[in-house]
C-alpha cells in the first residue's frame, strides 16, 4: 500500500459513524481529498506549500462540519460551498476553491475592504485606547495598547477559551498578545528601516494602526518565531487546540482571521461608545 493511500485512510478514519454518511456518493472524493490534504503542491500565497492542513480549521468552520478532510461528509459539505459560490460542486478541494474561500475570508475584514478602495483607515483617538495588563502581553514583544472595546472583547474571548479548552487553561502563554495597536508613524519608519514595506511581513498601512488587530500566541515550531511564516511553522500552529478553538469560536466575540497568519485576528464590530472614558 502506498504512503498516500495509508495517509488517506488515516485522515478518513474508519468508514463508519456520522462523518461517513452518503459514502456511496462521496467516498471517492473523500479519498482524493485525503490524499491532496498531504500531497497537494501549490502556492496559495506565492511560496510553495505542500498540502492544505494549515487551512483546514477555517474551511471546516465555513462548510459547517468538523468531519475530517478524507470523509464523505466533508466532501459533500464542500460541494455545497462550491455550488453556493458558483463553482462546479465536485466536493474536491483545489486551488480554485481555495481562492473563493480566501475571498470570503478577506471580505469579512473591513480593513481589507478599505484598502481595496485605496483608503488607509485613520488610527483611533488616544482616548479610545486602553492598556493591556502584564499577564496579557507576550514576553516575545511587549505591546501595551488596544482599542478599549476590542480589549474587552479579547478578555471575554480568552476567558471563554480557558474555560472550554484544558490545553489553553493550563498554559498562560497561549492567547497572550505580542502585537496590538501600532502607531502608524513608528510602524512606517520600522518597515522602511527593514526594507519590507507592503510585503507579507509588514505593510506601510497596517491593520494594527486601527487598534482592532491582535497578534495572539497560538504556539510555535521550536527554533522559529511566534510569527514565522514558514509553511511548517504555520502548519504546527494550525494543528494546535488554541487555533482550532479560535477558528470555530472567535467570531462569537467579533474577531475574524487573516488566513495566512494563524496568529492574526481582527475585531470587526464598530466602536462601542459605551467604552469612552
Features:
11 helices, alpha+beta, single chain, 277 residues, four-stranded antiparallel sheet, two-stranded antiparallel ribbon, globular
Q: Determine Rg (CA atoms, Å).
A: 20 Å
| Annotation field: number of helices | 11
Arithmetic mean pLDDT: 91
Q: State the end-to-end distance.
A: 66 Å
Low-confidence stretches: none
> Helix amount, in percent?
40-55%
Tell me what you see in this structure:
The chain has 277 residues and is α+β, with helices and mostly antiparallel strands. It is built from eleven helices and eight strands. A four-stranded antiparallel beta sheet has the order 5-6-8-7. Strands 1-2 form a two-stranded antiparallel ribbon. A hairpin with a 2-residue loop joins β7 and β8. α1 packs across α2, α2 packs across α4 and α3 runs parallel beside α11. The longest helix has 17 residues. The chain is globular, with a radius of gyration of 20 Å. It starts with a helix and ends in a 10-residue tail after the last strand. The mean pLDDT is 91.
Topology of this structure?
Elements: H1 3-12, H2 23-39, E1 41-42, E2 49-50, H3 56-63, H4 72-84, H5 95-107, H6 110-116, E3 129-131, E4 145-147, H7 148-164, H8 166-169, E5 177-179, H9 184-194, E6 213-216, H10 231-239, H11 241-249, E7 255-258, E8 261-267
Antiparallel strand pairs: 1-2, 3-4, 5-6, 6-8, 7-8
Amino acid at each position: 500500500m502506498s504512503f498516500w493511500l495509508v495517509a488517506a485512510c488515516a485522515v478518513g478514519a474508519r468508514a463508519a459513524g456520522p462523518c461517513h454518511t452518503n459514502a456511496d456518493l462521496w467516498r471517492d472524493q473523500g479519498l482524493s481529498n485525503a490524499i491532496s490534504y498531504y500531497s497537494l503542491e501549490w502556492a496559495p500565497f506565492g511560496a510553495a506549500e505542500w498540502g492544505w492542513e494549515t487551512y483546514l480549521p477555517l474551511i471546516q468552520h465555513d462548510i459547517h462540519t468538523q468531519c475530517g478532510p478524507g470523509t464523505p461528509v466533508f466532501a459533500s459539505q464542500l460541494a455545497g460551498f462550491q455550488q453556493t459560490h458558483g463553482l462546479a460542486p465536485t466536493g474536491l478541494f483545489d486551488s480554485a476553491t481555495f481562492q473563493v474561500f480566501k475571498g470570503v475570508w478577506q471580505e469579512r475584514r473591513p480593513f481589507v475592504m478599505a484598502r481595496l478602495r485605496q483608503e488607509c483607515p485613520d488610527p483611533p483617538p488616544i482616548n479610545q485606547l486602553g492598556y493591556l495588563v502584564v499577564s496579557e502581553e507576550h514576553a516575545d514583544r511587549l505591546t501595551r495598547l488596544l482599542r478599549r472595546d476590542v480589549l474587552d472583547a479579547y478578555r471575554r474571548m480568552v476567558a471563554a477559551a480557558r474555560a472550554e479548552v484544558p490545553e489553553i487553561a493550563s498554559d498562560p502563554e497561549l492567547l497572550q498578545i505580542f502585537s496590538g495597536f501600532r502607531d502608524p508613524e513608528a510602524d512606517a519608519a520600522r518597515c522602511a528601516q527593514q526594507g519590507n514595506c507592503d510585503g507579507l511581513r509588514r505593510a506601510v498601512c497596517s491593520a494594527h494602526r486601527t487598534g482592532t488587530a491582535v497578534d495572539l500566541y497560538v504556539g510555535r515550531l521550536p527554533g522559529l518565531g511566534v510569527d514565522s511564516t514558514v509553511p511548517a511553522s504555520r502548519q504546527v500552529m494550525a494543528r494546535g487546540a488554541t487555533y482550532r478553538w479560535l477558528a470555530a469560536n472567535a467570531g462569537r466575540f467579533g474577531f475574524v482571521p487573516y488566513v495566512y497568519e494563524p496568529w492574526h485576528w481582527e475585531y470587526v464590530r464598530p466602536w462601542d461608545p459605551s467604552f469612552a472614558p
